[in-house]
Structures are given as C-alpha cells and as structure tokens.
Write a structure and sequence with these properties.
Layout lengths: L10 E4 L8 E3 L9 E4 L12 H6 L4 E4 L13 E3 L3 H12 L8 E6 L4 H15 L3 E4 L4 E3 L2 E3 L8 H13 L4 E5 L2 H5 L10 E4 L13 H14 L11 E5 L4 H8 L4 E5 L6 E9 L2 E8 L2 E6 L5 H16 L4 H10 L8 E2 L9 E2 L5 H8 L1
Parallel strand pairs: 2-3, 3-4, 4-5, 6-10, 6-11, 7-10, 11-12, 12-13, 13-14
Antiparallel strand pairs: 1-5, 7-8, 8-9, 14-15, 15-16, 17-18
Helix pairs in contact: 2-4, 3-8, 3-9, 6-7
C-alpha cells in the first residue's frame, strides 16, 4: 500500500507519499521492515516515545497524533492524524482487504456470559458443518490453530490480521467477544457485524467508564452499528436479553430486526420447566420454530440464558432445532467458567472466573 492511499486519514508532515508500506504495527518492539508504525497514546505509556526504535526495526513510515518529539529523517513519511487508534483500525482494514466483509461476523457483548455464549454459538455452527473462527478471553481459534490471548478483544491491527487468517483458512464465520474497552478504544472499528448479541449489564469496569450510563451506552455502539453501511448479503439481527432492562435502550439503537430471549413467555425464545442441578441444567426451549427439550452439561441459571442466546443466533443463521439441540447438549463448557473439578471428593468443587458482584452472586446461587 502506498502512503498516498492513506492521506485521507490525516496530514502528511514530511516524506514521499509514494513510499510503499507492507504492514502496520503499534508496538515498536514488534515492528518489522516495511511497516507503518502507528504511535498510540496509551494509559501507561506513549508510543510517540518509541519512534526511533520503530525506525531502527525497519518502519518505513510513521503515523502520529502528537508533534514529533524527536527529529525524523526527512525521507521518512510522517502522517499526523486526529486519532491514532481510529487510524490504526482504518489502516489495518485496508491492508488486509476488509476481511470482515468476507465473513459472517457475530459479536457478543455484555458484562457476564460472553465467553460461554461465543463457545456455544461456535458449537452450533460447527455442528451444522461450518468452519468457524473465534476470538475471545480464553482462546482464539483460527482454522486449526489456537492462538494466545492478550485481551478479550484484540487491538484492531491484530484483530484484522486474525480475521484475514480466518478468511484464508476457509472460515465462513467469525464469532467474537466484544468488550466495552474494545468499543471505546476503536478495536472493532471497521468490522462489519452481522449479528450482535447482548447477554446482560451489571457493575463492572467502572475504573474505565465514568458511570453505569457510560458503560451501557458504550456497549450500545455494537447495536447501533448493525446494518450501517453494510456491503455484504445476508440477514442482520440483534439478539437481546428480554429480562435485562438495558435491552430496551439497545432496541432503540437498532436498525435491524431484534430477536429476544429470556425466561418468560413474552420473549421470542424462552425457557420453560427449568431445572438446575449440579450436573447440569435442563429446560424446554420454546421458539417460533417449535419446542425442544434440552439437557445441558452446564449448570447454573445463567447458563440457561447463555444457551438461549446461542440458540437464538443459530435460528437467525438458519440452523434447525435438532442441530441446535445436539450442539448444546454436547458442549462441556469453557475452562474456568463454573468448571467442575473432580478429585474423588464427596462434594462439588468448581473453578470459576466470576469477578463481578453479579457474576459471583449467580455462581453462588
């Protein structure tokens, strides 16, 4: 890509716009020859301090949002942009050819339940025979590879790279956790979501967000983006938890059809005759397509909600109820998510990730 192709993002301070960049980096230590280095002003450090290191590692051009702190060789193109985080996402999308346009992308947001719900969705789609990539807190699945996790939702440059690898691996779907940090920090900018899923909203991340209203509105960006500027075929939908008050706000933001789930008959999908035991939860799934009995290997009422959300996504994607049932009943859960720990003891032991007041309360119940 020519630097000239990025001039719409900012102002060229110096250098030749015909210089070619072959990659993008935001960490000077991971910068490779030919990269455009984007200096991000972070919470603990500032990428503008590492321009020289990036150049030493082979950066061919620089993108900044602050005045240059050190002299840069005149031949090196330097672009100044209003927001380095937004520009990083835009550059990454362009360099990788907008990979989300060649995938069905399902994003799951909420305080609790994102990880389990994404894994259940992946199980349903794979049960039908689809190739599915996954980005989340525990694992990143790309083709046959499992990649390490640094954030719930990776930085935009890494995320676009993962999506491009999913396309290359022949994946039809990308299922991903979408954190409020990712939405606020533009990590998912440029990702065209087809389905957005809301699990629940409870107290969390108030060290980052001003208050609960800010937290709620930040998550709402996912639903406001659905269907906006869409360039690919296929249905768009929002899947909302009918039992959570925040869903009313997210419905207002949606420009796409809404599917609801919950524990009461007013929802599009709901659970009847719920039984929660140590070995798992059982219920009857009631949907517009019919009813099916389900016996999960996951316990806890919150996992009934997670299964309902995943089933709703399956129906949006045209998966039949029998396939949804097989997938949900086979899934054994996710590491650390109310994970049974067996050692022959005459009592139940579970490993839990619950780190919010609501999450811990639901586990203890």
């Amino acid at each position: 890509m020519l630097v000239r192709e990025l001039l719409d993002l900012g102002v060229l301070l110096q250098g030749d716009p015909e210089v070619v960049v072959t990659g993008v980096a935001y960490d000077s230590r991971r910068t490779r020859p030919g990269d455009l280095f984007v200096a991000i002003r972070g919470f603990r450090d500032n990428g503008h301090r590492y321009l020289e290191e990036a150049l030493q590692n082979g950066a061919r051009a620089l993108m900044v949002e602050e005045p240059l702190p050190v002299p840069v060789p005149p031949a090196v193109p330097v672009l100044r942009v209003p927001s380095a985080r937004q520009a990083l996402a835009d550059v990454a999308c362009r360099l990788h050819g907008h990979p989300s346009r060649r995938l069905r992308v399902i994003g799951v947001t909420g305080t609790n339940g994102k990880t389990t719900t994404t894994h259940l969705i992946r199980s349903i789609l794979m049960e039908r025979g689809d190739r599915v990539g996954l980005v989340g807190t525990v694992h990143n699945y790309i083709g046959d590879d499992i990649l390490p996790v640094e954030h719930t939702t990776p930085e935009s440059a890494d995320l676009q790279h993962y999506l491009a690898r999913m396309v290359a691996a022949g994946s039809r779907y990308a299922v991903m956790e979408v954190s409020s940090h990712a939405l606020a920090l533009h990590r998912v900018r440029g990702v065209e979501f087809d389905v957005g899923v809301f699990t629940n909203l409870t107290q969390d991340h108030l060290d980052f967000h001003r208050d609960m209203d800010d937290y709620r509105e930040t998550k709402g960006r996912l639903f406001a983006s659905l269907g906006v500027g869409a360039t690919k075929p296929g249905p768009r939908a929002a899947v909302l938890n009918a039992d959570d008050p925040a869903s009313a706000r997210y419905r207002e933001l949606c420009q796409v059809p809404v599917v609801t789930y919950g524990l009461r008959p007013g929802a599009d999908l709901w659970a009847r005759d719920v039984e929660v035991r140590r070995e798992g939860a059982a219920f009857t799934l009631v949907s517009p397509q019919g009813e099916i009995p389900l016996r999960l290997r996951l316990t806890g009422l919150f996992n009934v909600y997670n299964a309902l959300a995943a089933a709703a996504v399956g129906l949006v994607e045209g998966v039949d109820l029998a396939t949804i049932r097989r997938a949900l009943e086979r899934t054994q859960g996710v590491a650390g998510r109310l994970e049974p720990v067996g050692g022959g003891q005459p009592f139940g032991v579970f490993g839990v990730y619950a780190h919010t007041p609501d999450g811990l309360e639901k586990v203890l119940r």
